[in-house]
Design a protein that fits this description.
Elements lengths: L4 E4 L8 E4 L4 E6 L53 H30 L36 E4 L2 E4 L9 E3 L5 E12 L8 E10 L8 H15 L7 E12 L2 E11 L9 E12 L2 E10 L3 H12 L2 E2 L2
Antiparallel strand pairs: 1-2, 2-3, 4-5, 5-13, 6-7, 7-8, 8-12, 9-10, 10-11, 11-12
Length: 315
């Protein structure tokens, strides 16, 4: 840059110009540069008259910019490499995304285990995995209960039912209870060549399985468990009639009454009403009342509800 003249400010001031006299830059800048070749503070010269014998203008390398780096002039910074702190921030963000993704996936799997699929609301309402609790106590023989005309199981009892109900029997196949006693009425005998479909009412001690934190949570869990255990591979559609808090002899309890619809090969009945009631006996113990009444015998549903109203907690 050997020619004197106005040039964009090498100090980087936006819209400003500085004069280069061929040797050094002017100490001032201007937003309105003068005519090319005219230094600041001077008037344009008359038409140039070359002097006789004048030496030609020599090309020279401009001196170093004396204003570069001076106060008030900061060179535009070029691109910089990411610092370690930036990489650490990116790493933390990736870690957060991974954790959140794992929690969301785990939550979906848990809901699906309980028969609820937020991503597919039309999915069958019975779960595809077994939600039944794992008992923390071994199966036990029925406890010794008083012979007082009532049916006892766990810490609950109800007045014994007469015909057409069977005599009270020990029920050892209940997935969520021990010390269970049941009464049944056969509705469709030998419907599949080896099993009978029955109406039933029973009382039992609730096993201390995972998830039994309150009567409400326990009742919901055994409802899901029953849908998984008692209806083979049939699709079961659940419609709750009621779900509410109650008390039994001053003890907190929760009851769910629900209608279950299904289509099981060989079985004429296509639905039934189930009642699940969990009674909190103590901080370490709960008992359960369960009834299942097929749609073909609605008169027995009245009996099951009367039994529910007559539950007592044993001393």
């Amino acid at each position: 840059m050997s020619n004197a003249g106005w040039y964009p400010d090498p100090g980087g001031a936006p819209g400003m110009y500085r004069f280069w006299d061929g040797t050094m830059w002017s100490p001032v800048v201007s937003s309105t540069p003068g005519p090319q070749g005219v230094a600041p503070g001077t008037q344009p010269m008359a038409a140039h008259q070359p002097s006789t014998g004048a030496s030609p203008l020599l090309s020279r390398t401009p001196a170093a910019n004396p204003y570069a780096g001076a106060s008030g002039f900061t060179p535009y910074p070029g691109p910089t490499k990411p610092t370690a702190s930036i990489w650490r921030s990116v790493g933390w963000l990736l870690a957060v995304f991974v954790v959140v993704g794992a929690l969301v996936f785990g939550g979906l799997q848990l809901l699906r285990g309980f028969g609820v699929d937020p991503l597919n609301p039309t999915a069958p309402s019975n779960p595809t995995v077994n939600p039944c609790p794992t008992a923390s106590m071994p199966a036990v023989s029925p406890a010794s209960h008083p012979n007082d005309g009532r049916v006892h199981g766990g810490k609950l009892s109800y007045p014994q039912l007469g015909s057409p109900w069977s005599a009270p029997e020990v029920e050892q196949r209940l997935p969520f209870g021990v010390d269970a006693t049941v009464q049944t009425v056969t509705v469709e005998p030998n419907y599949d060549g080896s099993h009978s479909w029955v109406a039933s009412v029973l009382v039992a001690e609730l096993v201390a399985g995972d998830g039994f934190f309150s009567p409400k949570e326990a009742t919901e869990l055994i409802t899901k468990c029953s849908m998984s255990e008692f209806y083979s591979d049939a699709v079961v559609q659940r419609t709750d009639v009621s779900s509410k808090a109650v008390t039994v002899d001053g003890h907190d309890a929760w009851v769910i009454e629900t209608h279950l619809a299904f289509d099981i090969p060989g079985l004429k009945v296509k639905g039934e009403t189930a009642i699940f009631e969990v009674v909190k006996i103590s901080d370490a113990s709960s008992s359960v009342y369960y009834a299942s009444i097929p749609d073909s015998v609605p008169e027995l549903l009245t009996v099951a509800r009367q039994v529910q109203d007559q539950l007592k907690v044993d001393p």
